[in-house]
């Protein structure tokens, strides 16, 4: 009798818990508008196709880094590079809200997607070797974009020679570089997504802090046990710096995810069937005895 009650209780709990565990999603507090449309996306197939450049302190005292992605189109059957994306202005501030350690490391075979926020005044700067924006004699010259473009070429000229025209001299990068200079604006300036080979998907924001959007204007964070409002001279930073933030993490990418619905009537019917089978088996055993 005790075994019968235990089995029935186990069956009931199984059907109650099953719907709740059919799709696991963990959301971290933060703003994120999920989208399947990305300005640029692709797969990192080799370690040298994702570069994290950190400048020398004397050259850039703010130590603003540039992340370069050499992406392969997820829809083709080769592993050739199709897109080059350069994200500038990111810095690993470990005490920043929702700082992403995942973004700091390369996940081979992962699919990456990037958007910039037009609402924040951001746009991609598409640069080729002969673009006026990187030509010092042009009226459109932008030294900041030129520096970022030079980082891309310096980081790939020898490690990825297939991207360069080796017929002419001097050789040049034959692919356009899509540059996001995040430190030109503050606030949420872009979104990113990473889908790992194990089907884990991480969604995040690029949030830029600066003098008009400081990190520390009150308690360090929402869990800070102190109720201290920092004086204005302690607000930080005084220069624009971007943080890659985690916002949402799920066990399956949205494009391939599924949910199994368990209507109440189905649960009741399944439970009833289980009890009928259990009763039938019990009676059969009694008859054999």
Short précis:
This protein has 289 residues and is an alpha+beta fold.
Describe the structure.
The structure is a single chain. Helices cover 20% and strands 25% of the residues. With 289 residues, the protein is an alpha+beta fold. The two termini are 17 Å apart. A hairpin with a 5-residue loop joins β11 and β12. A six-stranded antiparallel β-sheet has the order 1-13-12-11-6-2, with no helix packed on it. The chain has a five-stranded mixed β-sheet with strand order 3-4-5-10-7, covered by helices on one side. The protein is built from three helices and 13 strands, in the order αβββββββαββββββα.
Topology:
Layout (H helix, E strand, L loop, with lengths): L1 H19 L4 E3 L12 E4 L6 E4 L11 E7 L11 E8 L20 E6 L8 E3 L15 H14 L7 E2 L6 E2 L3 E5 L5 E9 L5 E9 L31 E10 L13 H25 L1
Parallel strand pairs: 5-10
Antiparallel strand pairs: 1-13, 2-6, 3-4, 4-5, 6-11, 7-10, 8-9, 11-12, 12-13
Helix pairs in contact: 1-3
Note the main attributes of this structure:
single chain; 289 residues; alpha+beta; 6-stranded antiparallel sheet; 5-stranded mixed sheet; 20% helix; flat
What structural category do the secondary elements indicate? Answer: alpha+beta
Percent strand equals 15-25%
> What is the approximate shape?
flat
Order of helices and strands: HEEEEEEEHEEEEEEH
Task: Report the biggest beta sheet as strand number plus sense, adding barrel if it closes.
Answer: 6 strands, antiparallel
Number of helices in the DSSP assignment: 3
Main β-sheet, spatial strand arrangement: 1-13-12-11-6-2
- Count every beta strand, where a strand is a DSSP E run of 2 or more residues: 13
């Amino acid at each position: 009798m005790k075994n019968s009650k235990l089995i029935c209780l186990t069956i009931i709990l199984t059907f109650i818990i099953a719907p709740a565990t059919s799709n696991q999603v963990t959301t971290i507090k933060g703003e994120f508008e999920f989208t399947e449309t990305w300005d640029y996306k692709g797969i990192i197939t080799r370690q040298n196709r994702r570069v994290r450049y950190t400048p020398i302190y004397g050259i850039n005292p703010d130590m603003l880094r540039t992340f370069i992605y050499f992406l392969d189109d997820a829809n083709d059957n080769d592993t050739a590079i199709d897109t080059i994306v350069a994200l500038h202005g990111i810095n690993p501030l470990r005490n920043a809200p929702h700082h992403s350690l995942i973004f700091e490391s390369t996940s081979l075979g992962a699919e990456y997607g990037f958007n910039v926020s037009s609402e924040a005044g951001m746009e991609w700067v598409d640069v080729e070797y002969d673009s006026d924006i990187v030509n010092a004699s042009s009226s459109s010259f932008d030294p900041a974009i030129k520096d970022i473009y030079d980082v891309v070429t310096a980081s790939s000229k020898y490690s990825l020679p297939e991207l360069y025209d080796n017929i002419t001299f001097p050789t040049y990068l034959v692919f356009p570089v899509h540059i996001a200079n995040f430190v030109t604006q503050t606030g949420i300036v872009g979104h990113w997504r990473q889908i790992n080979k194990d089907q884990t998907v991480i969604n995040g924001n690029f949030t830029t802090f600066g003098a008009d959007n400081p990190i520390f204007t009150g308690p360090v964070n929402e869990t800070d046990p102190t109720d201290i409002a920092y004086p204005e001279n302690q607000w930080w930073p005084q220069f624009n710096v971007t943080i890659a933030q985690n916002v949402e993490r799920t066990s399956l990418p949205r494009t391939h995810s599924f949910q199994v619905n368990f209507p109440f009537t189905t649960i009741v019917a399944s439970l009833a069937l289980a009890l009928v089978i259990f009763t039938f088996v019990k009676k059969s055993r009694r008859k054999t005895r």
